[in-house]
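debug: dumping io for the single-chain case to check the tokenizer round-trip. Nothing else runs in this session.
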Amino acid sequence: MQTATPAARKAPRPRADALRNRERIVTAAREMFVEHGPDVPLDDIARRAGVGNATVYRNFPDRDALVREVVCSVMDRTVAAAELALAQTGDAFEALERFVHTAADERISALCPMVQSTFDQHHPDLEASRERCEILVAAIMDRAKAAGQLRSDVDVGDVLIAAAQLSRPPAGTGCDLADRYVHRHLQLFLDGLRAPARSILPGTALTMEDLRKA
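debug: decoded output
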């Protein structure tokens, strides 16, 4: 006589308040990492998020897990903004502009150095977010080139490096001053990407393979 195999139980879905708490923690951590760096005490993050210390550790067992979640969530939101722009307008160059300006607002230039100094940059979660970002930007740039909107002598690495550099305040200056001008300077850079090109760029286009080897 065979006994029936019990049906596998589905894992319970997180409650809405638990999801809200997790999002508050990630938002607070992002703000404080930008302001103070990745070594900010987790207790301070909990206070800004309005949750208890136990709630932070229940969601993120260690600092590396929290930093990784912050970086991945920033990259995912930046990609989502570019996808939305492309879906709404069909204009590839406008989607590229949306990506660059959103990346600046998300403070990617401040968060990216933490990837190399805080946790494994080859973690599957980070690599998946990075790959989605690279694929989308490459696709947008290819469409813009095909439409005659984007100069042909640039690549994904050129855009990502320039956007990060222009979003970072110069040495010896305050963040408030840089924040006032970052979008102005990013738009100057973006205008320089438009076709037809008005100059010949020195060197060769910077690809993602070049960045990974650096």
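debug: round-trip ok. The chain is about 70% helix and 0% strand.
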